[in-house]
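Task 17 of the worksheet. Students: predict the tertiary structure of the chain below and write it out as structure tokens. Keep your answer in the requested format; marks are given for formatting as well as content.
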Amino acid sequence: MQRRLAILGSTGSIGTQALSVVREHPGEFKVEMITANSSVDLLISQALEFRPTYAAVCNPDVFPKLCSALEGSAVKPILGMDAICEKVAEDSVDMALTALVGFSGLRPTIAAIKARKPIALANKETLVAGGAYVMPLAAKMGVPILPVDSEHSAIFQCLLCAGGNKISKIHLTASGGPFRTWKKEDIAKATAAQALRHPRWDMGAKITIDSSTLMNKGFEMIEARWLFDTAPSDINIVVHPQSIIHSMVEYEDGEVIAQLSEPDMRGPIQFALSFPRRLPLSAKKMDFATLGSLTFEKPDFDKFPCLGLAFKAAERGGNVPCAMNAANEAAVAAYLRGDISFYGIAEVVSKFSDEVPFVKDLTEENLIATNDDTFRRAADYIAARRGTL
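Model answer:
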């Protein structure tokens, strides 16, 4: 039977590559719902090609154009996050791929979990902000959460070889981003345009900036902490510029299992969507004879302070990672506008991670409240100090 998919965030990098996987395996997958925020032209094109039951946008300004374009088709246009959360819970959906950007992915992921839909998780902020709430909820509902990030997919695949043996450490690899070889004084003057030139991956603007600060690797550490029930202290970040080894798992006897592939997100996307089966994929295959050397380095916490802030937030727990994520969203948006400097991002994140009123026991409601309040206060702080951060 075809696996019927809700692709939440279908116009982004992960969403478009997921649709490429569907296109390659039309007998295996059926698209039931696609969503976007404002990218209505691409969403319309996707809707007319894949003919889902629902096509949703969150921006009301583009909804009339969506309705007009889909008039006379079998695709039903819907508007807003409330409608998305309602439709993702319908019986016609077998699995939800959550690929929305930022904290916006939390609500529909929770809605899908409550409806007992398996989750292919590409929205790392769901577990960064709310892992202490989301993972117990998924366990209670009997819902598998399958990782889509290449690093977490690699860890997951390595753990399939564990045979019940206890792991000693997770080695989470990082490309190092565009500023890996830069001096700190030069990084301080880096523009957003420079930060967006990632050496290995083609991603959206938000995640690319997060990769340049290594905040993305801090997020992935927190995500791994929840996905694999591991203490942050047992997760080691290692810089691997070639992005061939996507992560490694070390066992108690010192043996290490690694997962290798060419940098292509379609592989981990497809593995999550088809699990436990592996399907063919028209991706570039490994050629070890021409691969050359694989190198590894320690991350520089001084040049990339956001990585240390993520470890600090993970150790404090409660709603602190949620506040850290919200402050980072506000700061990255400001950096992309040119309102703050590269290191202004870490300054904002540090301030609002430290100042958040601590909440230990998380709920969907207090996560949303923490996110909204922290984002607003961080945005106000940045606006009042524009050009000085």
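Marker's comment: The chain has a mean pLDDT of 93. The first strand starts at residue 3 and ends at 8.
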